[in-house]
Formyltetrahydrofolate deformylase (Arthrobacter jinronghuae), 1156 residues
Amino acid sequence: MISSPDAPAANAFTLTLSCPDRPGIVHAVSASLVAAEGNITESAQFGSPETGSFFMRVDFTSPRSYEQVHTELAATASAFAMSWELHRAGRRTRTLIMASKSGRCLNDLLFRQRAGTLPIDIPAIVSNHRELEPLADFYGVPFHHIPVAPDTKDQAEDRLRALMAELDIELVVLARYMQILSNDLCRDLSGRAINIHHSFLPSFKGARPYHQAHARGVKLIGATAHYVTSDLDEGPIIEQEVIRVDHARSAAQLAALGSDVEGRALSKAVQWHAEHRVLLDGRRTIVFS
Amino acid sequence: MISSPDAPAANAFTLTLSCPDRPGIVHAVSASLVAAEGNITESAQFGSPETGSFFMRVDFTSPRSYEQVHTELAATASAFAMSWELHRAGRRTRTLIMASKSGRCLNDLLFRQRAGTLPIDIPAIVSNHRELEPLADFYGVPFHHIPVAPDTKDQAEDRLRALMAELDIELVVLARYMQILSNDLCRDLSGRAINIHHSFLPSFKGARPYHQAHARGVKLIGATAHYVTSDLDEGPIIEQEVIRVDHARSAAQLAALGSDVEGRALSKAVQWHAEHRVLLDGRRTIVFS
Amino acid sequence: MISSPDAPAANAFTLTLSCPDRPGIVHAVSASLVAAEGNITESAQFGSPETGSFFMRVDFTSPRSYEQVHTELAATASAFAMSWELHRAGRRTRTLIMASKSGRCLNDLLFRQRAGTLPIDIPAIVSNHRELEPLADFYGVPFHHIPVAPDTKDQAEDRLRALMAELDIELVVLARYMQILSNDLCRDLSGRAINIHHSFLPSFKGARPYHQAHARGVKLIGATAHYVTSDLDEGPIIEQEVIRVDHARSAAQLAALGSDVEGRALSKAVQWHAEHRVLLDGRRTIVFS
Amino acid sequence: MISSPDAPAANAFTLTLSCPDRPGIVHAVSASLVAAEGNITESAQFGSPETGSFFMRVDFTSPRSYEQVHTELAATASAFAMSWELHRAGRRTRTLIMASKSGRCLNDLLFRQRAGTLPIDIPAIVSNHRELEPLADFYGVPFHHIPVAPDTKDQAEDRLRALMAELDIELVVLARYMQILSNDLCRDLSGRAINIHHSFLPSFKGARPYHQAHARGVKLIGATAHYVTSDLDEGPIIEQEVIRVDHARSAAQLAALGSDVEGRALSKAVQWHAEHRVLLDGRRTIVFS
């Protein structure tokens, strides 16, 4: 990591990969990195006993170009049948945020993006309502009002897909977007759409969950951020948060506290995704945080 | 609270009550306390909008005897149709602990009781196995081995009931007791038996919950301490705790961490019950902690 | 609390009081409330053994006017030498926020106020810089730029005092305001100005605290919200929060995480103050949360 | 990791190392592991920008013997000027626990060791008092009473050193041992003695810290587990924990809650040390947890 004064300026990269576990993976990858004049600054590996998969994330610097580094790694990746990605550090994930009327999560994401702690660009906000348009305007993010009715749902998803294509969207964040996406869209967004929902111990099925939680007198309320799958709210979990509550809180106050927790869990999940710290291991995630 | 030098030594009491909410409750109770020369040291009240019940807990001192104070309060309690209890401070709740093979929760309770932070006496430990007998012996608590087989369950519960009667048991703590109590016993123990079980977000039904939690990659695991009802694991919640885990923990490690959290939640619930801080409001608890 | 159909509409009030502890306080207060046709919905009392003071907070409803209720309570308050306040529920605390360049805490407060979870009005934001003016504009709050230089400090504080008088300010929140207030102003604002600052275990003196915390490899970073006193950062603590960090976080990342925690602790402290849940007990606070 | 049926049974190892950061470290280490037929199951690396050091921890399996693996790694270690250790997985750290009268931390450690969640052996408990002897007896651990008086301190430390030598002690845990070790002993135990002490925000100097914390009305109390250095309570931090408290807790109750937190922080620190997850980076620790 200590560069000699006459070395060319180094670029920072992040490599993530997963593959069937077998001997020699780290050695092969590090050989490719040495060949690319790479210096590792932070790295983590994990072999999953259940799925027999191996996971690796490497932050490194190299004086070579992205293309040169990519080429060095490609042969190794191929030899080990890796799923892999090479990211330029500092390149921000192009993120589309969807929301409905509640602005808590959206406000959190926009503020953190602006403050520089969330490495994403937000070229678009999509909503089925108009309430959050002023917030989008304040942050200078184009706001797309795409209303959804039972008979226009297909059409609305077509507009969303078109927008994603046009804007090169890499990540979709459902920041309290209160419409259910179609199975087709969920499948197409697999691994690149993050949703947030409330979580309780015990869990409550059906409508008005905070009223149910209040009626049971729960002492903790929580939130789960997860990847979207067609199985509603059952996708791989990225992050969870809870806070303590007591009997004196009304259902409405629980819901307000819940939205705080949702904002925190969602922001963390988006940050970890955007920093390429989340890898999929079947139905669960490996988070190199 | 500042007693004059020649005042008789004051006794400390705790009063708890609940009744249908209407004007004048606090005034009537405080009038009775004034009549009993009582000085309030800590108190809390809460009116539950959902159930229309009013809850009150008062710590106070008085130079009068327990019987005298009781008499002063009885008329008020009757006039307002109160459920109420008057406790001598420092009188320890007679507690029977039931456990099976896992000693984590039992060890916590015994250690805290011995250290003086848990205001209970433990005249008996009941187990359907023998593994925990040495731990009971170390703390000098009589250990009762009551094995349970499908055809001896009634008999076992009869022995338990006899033991409870003989020892004047006021509270039963199920500290990882892995047998299901009969509906009759659950009903008879209503409000004076505390159980602990694991809790997750989302919750998992069926066997091997930590394996399920591991397979879903949960980021938090928790525990819920609750009063026993005939509806298994659905009784009024007293306390909940969680801790953070990550992908590298095996199902066995999750279970070990889970037992830590269970021990903490159960100890707190027992403490609050024994300090008369928990009142029942239908399916939920009011905890004046 | 269950009003008869023909009763006049009830108003909700909050009463807070403290006085030297002696028998009969609760009884006298509840007698006044009965005389005012008051119904208690939530209440808490606490006698402080150290200072010999008694503290009480009561939420109640009454069909009487504020003036009538106030009159009923005044005689009791006088008899017990109480410090006391009677608040109309729903009346929002008039709050002036001061900030410098960092917007995290300000953004939190503005969002929560707008969302209705923080019972305050914000008639003014004061800053010694201009960076946060657009945020104030977005929320429609008048922004007052009052620069501070060593030789203009008195003048700046005069402008602040004039603004507070003109706007009937009841609470000042220092939301990362990086100027030290004069001793005179601190004294005048005693009990009605809240500050936020970072907190660590162990604590670090002097400049660049997050660099010091990083150098020591702390595993938790925190924030403390407290009342302003002339003894810098040593006023009565209202709320504290922490989060977990690890060795891989840089000092800059620690500072960013720290500002999250600061925002949370400050918002809670402001909420509790505005809900009249915080009472002063010498150098410490009683928080009836 | 997937072994062929006729492969020799693999042994599990943990390698930890640190060295001056430069290119090729991971590659060289992984080459040695490949040469030793090693399969990595979990691994983490970190380059510390402040100290210019690189840290690595690798869990791996190999069919070779400890000596063979050690030989393969030794050349690489030498070439990169590494501080390094190779541990057989499952080999338990030989740990001597020192305590005085308070048994909370000791009880936690003994219970967890017995339960199998703490990979240590405890061949001796040393105390300057006799109160904890029965607890040691219950767990079958030899108890050594080494009283300490001002004029016998040297002698007491000589006995301790002799005991450590005789029992091949690798780790000393000060589990609320209320005597200050000499500078010489602290230096000799550097990196292999763990202490626990209370921590507050703000911190309090001098005697009776819980009384000071109570007088300031802190809302959180905590504990810090750290390596012993001659600079009292200022050694590299391994783990920190906090819990929430409120105004109603007395100083004695704060101290009881504090001992819970101390037990938790200390147990975690010992676990991580014994799992070879803690590496020293100057005044701070890298914890690969």
